[in-house]
């Protein structure tokens, strides 16, 4: 009995000590609707995935808290010639496993990200290769003169050559192709946090990197990040109200008034840079079957009719709770290339939509396959259902199916539907070349058209995009970029709906900036001392 009592006391003391240690730690418990689908930084061009990975990995250059480009793993750079950038690397940086960061890692990372199977090959369109000058100097070679190479490099995160070789991860994976590897679930970066554990669709834990090269200069005082994907809106709300979560980065809009009334909770809402689009299948064959041997979506009048049939103002007012705006351009005002004067002029007009369908030869409408994503885009299930109802009123019937992210990406990206949803924020470039190169240029199996889901092709647009990728005169380049957007907004291979609103709820003890790119940057955040 005495031994049992002693053991119980020791266990109780141990539990108390652990509880005290947990309380002493600064922990941020972060919830959002969907999981981070991959930790491989070259597998998927997804803003949430890349944002999370930036807590672990770093690039040569980066966007700071004010969205200014600043040095990161490179201390400085210079233009050697029209197609070569020389980077001088930061010395003394170590990967999480203790390996030194040096030029060999940059060369291997560039080779991996420019591999044809890289899931973010399109984000490195101007990058050709890299060569080592010495241990801490690297030349990055461009495919030609490029005004956006540095922008692209903000999204190319550096990986450890030795680690990749050890774990047979020198070749990238791709979510669109359904491939995975060691880097899908394991990490080894140089960044502010280290992956401690990962249980897919359940929880990820990051811990502070005490050996981070910026450790002495950083203002962040976070010891641990516990990230949880929580699909249920009511569970995320309850967790925020009860104090279980310190940050929920995708609060349902209808729950914001409730949270605003609560003490100890800060609510942050603003439109983001991301435009929500419907993608249209412009191939010769519809997945739902052609009409009289034709695909109606190849006719611009049909695409315009389908756009005019959607009451986008009502979607913004009712489903998005008036917390954003209708998008009449393919990019947000903050993105280089935006021109309000060349915005889409037509609005909701179902009568004119029916007239255009009849003019195109489809007075009785047609049927389409329609696939929408669950748990990623804000309120997408509701506005997809609304779009389905609006189209049915003009005779366009759709078979609407909802999917989780992993299933949906392969359906959409491989053209196995007629209508899909896609959000585009032009990150990490903050430049319309992103949408032009990845969505509007015809698909070439290389750097162009990675997200050209409609299989849209316009030779004039292709030529302008290619010219803009090498044009160093910013005024001339802006004209080229704007012309591409204006022509595409007239053709409507993608139907713009609205700017996705950002809706965060945080503990009032968490100091964090909400930028329009909707990127959570906890290495710039801090927890107020009690």
TrEMBL record:
Residues 170-193 are annotated as: Disordered. It holds the Pfam family SBP_bac_5. Keywords: Signal, Transport. Residues 1-24 form the signal peptide. Residues 171-190 have a biased composition (Polar residues). CDD domains: PBP2_NikA_DppA_OppA_like_2. It comes from Oceanimonas smirnovii. Belongs to the bacterial solute-binding protein 5 family. Residues 68-443 form the Solute-binding protein family domain. This is ABC transporter substrate-binding protein. Gene3D superfamilies: Dipeptide-binding Protein, Domain 1, Dipeptide-binding Protein, Domain 3, Periplasmic binding protein-like II.
């Amino acid at each position: 009995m005495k031994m049992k009592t002693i053991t119980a006391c020791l266990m109780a003391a141990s539990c108390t000590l652990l509880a005290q240690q947990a309380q002493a730690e600064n922990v941020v418990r972060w919830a959002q609707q969907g999981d981070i689908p991959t930790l491989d930084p070259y597998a998927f061009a997804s803003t949430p995935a890349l944002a999370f990975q930036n807590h672990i990995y770093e690039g040569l250059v980066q966007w700071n808290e004010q969205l200014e480009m600043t040095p990161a793993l490179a201390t400085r750079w210079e233009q050697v010639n029209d197609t070569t950038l020389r980077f001088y690397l930061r010395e003394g940086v170590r990967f999480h496993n203790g390996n030194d960061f040096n030029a060999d890692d940059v060369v291997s990372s560039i080779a991996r990200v420019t591999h044809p199977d890289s899931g973010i090959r399109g984000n490195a369109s101007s990058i050709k290769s890299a060569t080592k000058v010495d241990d801490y100097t690297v030349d990055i070679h461009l495919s030609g003169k490029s005004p956006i190479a540095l922008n692209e490099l903000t999204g190319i995160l550096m990986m450890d050559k030795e680690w990749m070789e050890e774990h047979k991860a020198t070749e990238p994976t791709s979510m669109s192709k359904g491939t995975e590897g060691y880097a899908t679930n394991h990490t080894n970066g140089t960044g502010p946090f280290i992956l401690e554990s990962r249980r897919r669709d359940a929880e990820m834990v990051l811990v502070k990197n005490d050996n981070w090269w910026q450790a002495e200069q950083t203002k962040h005082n976070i010891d641990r990040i516990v990230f949880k994907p929580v699909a249920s809106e009511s569970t995320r709300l309850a967790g925020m109200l009860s104090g279980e979560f310190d940050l929920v980065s995708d609060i349902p809009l209808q729950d914001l008034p409730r949270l605003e009334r609560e003490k100890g909770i800060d609510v942050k809402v603003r439109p983001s840079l991301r435009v929500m689009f419907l993608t249209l299948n412009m191939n010769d064959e519809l997945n739902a079957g052609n009409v009289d041997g034709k695909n109606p979506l190849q006719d611009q009048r049909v695409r315009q009719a389908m756009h005019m049939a959607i009451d986008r103002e009502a979607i913004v007012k009712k489903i998005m709770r008036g917390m954003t705006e209708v998008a009449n351009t393919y990019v947000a005002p903050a993105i280089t290339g935006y021109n309000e004067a060349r915005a889409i002029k037509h609005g909701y007009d179902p009568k004119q939509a029916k007239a255009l369908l009849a003019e195109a030869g489809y007075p009785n409408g047609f049927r389409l396959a329609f696939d929408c994503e669950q748990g990623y885009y804000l309120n997408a299930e509701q506005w997809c259902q609304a779009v389905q109802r609006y189209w049915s009123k003009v005779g366009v019937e759709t078979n609407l199916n909802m999917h989780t992210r992993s299933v949906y990406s392969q359906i959409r990206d491989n053209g196995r539907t007629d209508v899909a949803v896609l959000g585009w924020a032009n990150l990490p470039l903050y430049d319309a070349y992103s949408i032009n190169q990845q969505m509007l240029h015809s698909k070439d199996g290389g750097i162009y058209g990675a997200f050209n889901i409609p299989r849209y092709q316009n030779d004039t647009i292709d030529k302008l995009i290619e010219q803009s990728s090498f044009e160093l005169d910013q005024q001339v380049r802006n004209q080229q970029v704007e012309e591409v957007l204006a022509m595409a907004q007239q053709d409507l291979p993608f139907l713009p709906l609205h700017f996705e609103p950002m809706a965060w709820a945080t503990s009032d003890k968490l100091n964090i900036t909400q930028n329009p790119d909707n990127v959570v940057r906890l290495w710039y955040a801090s927890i107020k001392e009690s």
